[in-house]
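ok so for the tutorial part 2 we go from a plain amino acid sequence to predicted structure tokens. step 1 is just haveing the sequence, like this:
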Amino acid sequence: GQGATPGGGDYVRLRIVDDGQGMAQSTLEHAFEPFFSTKAIGQGIGMGLSMVYGFSKQSRGHVTLHSQIGQGTRVDLYLPRHHGRTTQPSNPEPPVQGGRGRHVLVVEDDSHVRQLLCQALREDGFPCHSAADASEGLAVLRSTEPVDLLISDVGLPGMNGRQLAEIARSLRPRLPVLFITGYAETAIARESFLGTDMYLISKPFELKQLQAQVLRILATK
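step 2 — the prediction. this is what the tokens look like for a chain of 221 residues:
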């Protein structure tokens, strides 16, 4: 939140200032919330400042926002100062496998969400193919590209994610599927929506939740 400052120890402050239109207090109060955005649908997904906030906390730091309508915005990112030299470990540990290295296909029509999901998966050790709709997804599934998990939004234009999963299973019979939906209650209530090795994650979710779900699914395959 605003106003708080990090306590104890030395910090490095990174300050970013713009001269844009600024934010009202009501917007500032929600600026760090995942998926909160003042932009029109399709122009942003509201994850930018949320990820900055998460990164700062993960680094045991802090971030503050100051803004006024018509006077721009100032972001102060505080990160703990490191004293000493960086040393390379003599025997670096091998990366944890646990399903990592397996290939994921993400089918999502929102380009911002698609890019964000693939970036998060790649950073977590999962090579990622992406497709904007079912047709593009099927082109990958019909190719020789390795695919160990299909992640699909249920609400795709044209053929929906559940229909895509049926065809995907005819092409690759044991392929696990993770659906993304904003209508979890309706989807679950519908009998037999989820088949064998099919899973569901409902919006809004944090990226770490998706990463954990993917790891759980692929660790057993």
